[in-house]
Structure formats: structure tokens, C-alpha cells
Amino acid sequence: MYDYPESEFYGFVISNGKYLLSSNSVSLSFGSKEIFVIRKIISLTNRVGLQRTSDIFKKEGGLFFIEFKGVNKLLNVDEILLKVSKGKIDEKKSFLRGVFLGCGILSSPPSYHLEFRFEHEKEMNFLSNMFKNMNIKHLKTNNHIYIKGRENIKKFLHFVGGIETYLFFEEDAVEREVSNTTNRKTNFEFANLERQTAATTRQLKFLKDIKDGGALDKMRNDLKEIAIMRLTYPYLSLSELAEKSNGRYSKQSIYYRLRKIMEAYEK
């Protein structure tokens, strides 16, 4: 399937992103009921190379949130919409997939409709024009766009590569069964993500203490290199760190060396 991470990321920003401004920093925040959407946003953010100082993950009131603190640039809505309008067809598909995952609500049978909610009219009108160009019938009202009818929904989902989602909603019985499974899986994944976040935070604090204490320069070269990589890219997974090493280290070897550093300097 087509893969344009920047375009898909733009779709999330337009439909779900919120900038939080403080006196000395800027944060970009996203929220969703689904943990896999938050994971998708984190992955896309890493792939497009958005620099930031830290990632804050939390759950409040049944929603999952990811906040990217200290982002190095503000994304201008007008510039995003202009880029998308001039993009290739597959880039537009990726953008719409991000919008769908960011704010789309797909009803279950018997009342089929797909709803998009926007805070600003500009983004809503842009999406409406895209639907017109795709010959997808829709209704625009207030800050909502509705696509009604199986065939219209199916056309949209097929366009963005989400036909499986349409099929998922075909049967009530299947929906209930999968929903229960999804809830169990979501709880499991959230617990895992919480553990991973806590472990990474502790690891980064430990490495910073080692660096501030001057012990970093006393490490053998491979351990020092891994420690610097971890500190330089605090938001990357071990797999992504392995890619940054250009083949010198695998995910397992990075994990082994980080553990060795922790064990050696905790004594």
C-alpha cells in the first residue's frame, strides 16, 4: 500500500492536533480513544523527524493522549493544505487516512454513516472539496461532515486503504466479538506502553546523571556510543536506534549494552 508518512501526519495534525503554548516552549498534543491510533501518531512523528525534547503519554477519562513537548517548529495550516492540494493522488490518500484515524467516527449497523468533526471551518471546507473531487456524496453542517450509505462509505474507505474497516462493521455479532477482544488488547497494550515509558524515563535520567558526573568519557567506546545515541534520540524505540546506527548494532545488542551500563553504574 502507498506510504507517505508526512502526508498522513498532516492529516492527523489537521484533524486531531492541538498546539499548547507556554512562556518558553511549544507542545503538540493528540488524543484518541484507541491506543493503536496513538502508536500510529508516535511512529509517524518519528518518521517525519519532528524534533522535540520529550514525549508525555497519559490516559484520562477513557482517552489516551500523547504530548510532544518542546517541538522545534509550528506547522502552518495554510501551508499544509496547500501542500496536500498540490500532492500526488497517493499523497492525498495518505492525508485522508490520517484525517480518518484522527477524527473519523464510523457507526455500526443498522445506521451506516461516517462522521468527521472539525474545530475550524477552513479544514472542514478543504475536506469537503476533496470529497467532491472524489465524487463522494456527503453532508456538511456546522463543524461536521457526514458520509451516509454503505456504498459511499465503502468508496471512501477503499480510497484510503481502509476497506477492512468497512468489512469489520458489516455484522453486528462480529462487531461485538471483536470489540471485546479489542478492549482486552487495548488494556494489555496500554499497560505495556506505561511500563515502557516508565523504563525509558528512568533510563534517560540515569544516563544524564552518568554524563553530568563525568563517567561517560570513562566508558569503553561501544557503551559510550550507545549511551550518546540514547541521549541524542530519547524518543526513538530500540529498533529505530538500531537503524540510526547504520547496521553497527542490532536492537538486541543495544538493549544488552544499555542494560550493561545500568548494571555497572548502579553498583
Q: Can you give a write-up of this model?
A:
The termini are far apart. The protein has two domains: 5-170, Homing endonucleases (Endonuclease I-creI, Roll); 195-266, no CATH class. The strands form two sheets. It has a four-stranded antiparallel sheet, with helices on one face. Strands 5-6-8-7 form a four-stranded antiparallel sheet. It has helices at 5-16, 35-48, 77-86, 89-103, 121-133, 150-159, 163-168, 172-212, 221-232, 238-244, 251-266; strands at 18-21, 26-32, 54-60, 63-69, 104-106, 113-117, 139-141, 144-148. It is of the alpha+beta class and 267 residues long. α9 (221-232) crosses α11. It is elongated.
Furnish the topology, listing elements before pairings.
Layout lengths: L4 H12 L1 E4 L4 E7 L2 H14 L5 E7 L2 E7 L7 H10 L2 H15 E3 L6 E5 L3 H13 L5 E3 L2 E5 L1 H10 L3 H6 L3 H41 L8 H12 L5 H7 L6 H16 L1
Antiparallel strand pairs: 1-2, 2-4, 3-4, 5-6, 6-8, 7-8
